Amino acid sequence: MLLIVNAGSSSIKLKVFDGSDEVAGAAVSEIGPDGHRAALAEGLDRAGVRIDRLTAAAHRVVHGGEGLTATCRVMPDVVSAIAACVPLAPLHNPANLTGIAAVSALA
What we know:
Blueprint: E1 2-7, E2 11-18, E3 21-29, H1 36-47, E4 56-59, H2 76-84, H3 93-106
Parallel strand pairs: 1-4
Antiparallel strand pairs: 1-2, 2-3
Helix pairs in contact: 1-3
């Protein structure tokens, strides 16, 4: 199953797909800057999705600059590129990076 994550500064939204079928979704709001990992776990729990059932995750990132213009695998260089674009999306990219870290921590 595929986890889609939209991590914001005060909320995290997720959807889970099995093939092309959306099978679950959840949103957790009013989270603090350090609460994304707990909010992600709570959202998966609300949606009834076990982390061990997930095979991949995708993240919505607001700004990847000129170097990240298409879908790509999140690797350390991609995280660095997103971080370098924080000045272009200061309200969004830090939360996007926190969401990426939260998924990585739960994996």
